[in-house]
């Protein structure tokens, strides 16, 4: 799989935005791969948001990924799912989704990255990169650990965790194919301007 952009957008309503409205803003600003991340919502609301965003993405030829929920991904005709280490296992996800859907796997070290690659993942998420971020991480994995993972696997790597517009260049230099950013984007006063700035930085 080749990621369509160095920016991996995550639709998360932590700042109070409606998920579909947020996705629309991201797509208008140039995002080409979106992941819907909804915590502490009903399955009904998750599915409604996923279906709306799936249609938005497919009209713009953008990739739509659902976080955690294989069932929601299937019911919303998403392009794929992103699974954490405590979600359903990769082989189960592949069995349910089939060979043509995208499956990303969260990893935090070389061992997990290699296991994801051997298991047939299409890309891996790696992190948390830095302290802070949405999960208020106390200590990030850092650029050196990212470089070690880059040397260990051939899969595309999406770095995540505490990344801001300022740190995108160093993350890409260390081996990430894309940077996933939540707080620095969705809490920005002008989300579209923030995304356009990140896209400009990451493509230079």
What topology emerges from the helices and strands here?
Blueprint: E1 7-11, H1 19-29, E2 33-36, H2 43-59, E3 63-67, H3 70-75, E4 80-83, H4 90-97, E5 102-107, H5 110-118, E6 123-126, H6 142-152, E7 157-160, H7 168-173, E8 178-181, H8 183-186, H9 191-203
Parallel strand pairs: 1-2, 1-8, 2-3, 3-4, 4-5, 5-6, 6-7, 7-8
Helix pairs in contact: 1-2, 1-9
What this model shows, in words?
- The protein is an alpha/beta fold and about 200 residues long.
- The chain has helices at about 20-30, 45-60, 70-75, 90-95, 110-120, 140-150, 170-175, 185, 190-204, and strands at about 5-10, 35, 65, 80-85, 100-105, 125, 155-160, 180.
- Strand 5 (about 100-105), helix 5 (about 110-120) and strand 6 form a beta-alpha-beta unit.
- The radius of gyration is 16 Å and the shape is globular.
Over the alpha carbons, how many angstroms does the gyration radius reach? 16 Å
User: How many individual β-strands?
Assistant: 8
Distance between the termini: 22 Å
Which percent band covers the strand fraction? 15-25%
Q: Kindly report the CATH topology.
A: TIM Barrel
In short:
The protein has 204 residues and is an alpha/beta fold. The chain has helices spanning 19-29, 43-59, 70-75, 90-97, 110-118, 142-152, 168-173, 183-186, 191-203; strands spanning 7-11, 33-36, 63-67, 80-83, 102-107, 123-126, 157-160, 178-181. The chain is globular, with a radius of gyration of 16 Å.
């Amino acid at each position: 799989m080749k990621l369509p952009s160095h920016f991996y957008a995550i639709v998360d309503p932590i700042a109070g935005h409606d998920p579909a409205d947020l996705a629309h803003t991201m797509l208008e600003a140039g995002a080409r791969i979106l992941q819907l991340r909804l915590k502490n919502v009903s399955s009904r609301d998750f599915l409604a948001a996923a279906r709306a965003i799936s249609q938005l993405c497919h009209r713009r030829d953008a990739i739509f990924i659902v976080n955690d929920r294989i069932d929601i991904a299937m019911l919303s005709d998403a392009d794929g799912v992103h699974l954490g280490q405590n979600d359903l296992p990769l082989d189960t996800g592949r069995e349910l989704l089939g060979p043509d859907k995208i499956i990303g796997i969260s990893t935090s070290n070389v061992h997990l990255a290699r296991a994801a690659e051997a298991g047939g993942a299409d890309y891996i998420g790696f992190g948390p990169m830095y302290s802070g971020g949405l999960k208020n991480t106390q200590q990030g994995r850092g650029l050196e650990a990212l470089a070690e993972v880059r040397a260990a696997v051939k899969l595309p790597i999406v770095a995540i965790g505490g990344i801001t517009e300022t740190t995108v260049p160093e993350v890409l230099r260390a081996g990430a194919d894309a940077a996933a950013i939540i707080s620095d984007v969705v809490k920005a006063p002008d989300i579209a301007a923030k995304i356009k700035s990140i896209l400009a930085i990451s493509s230079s």
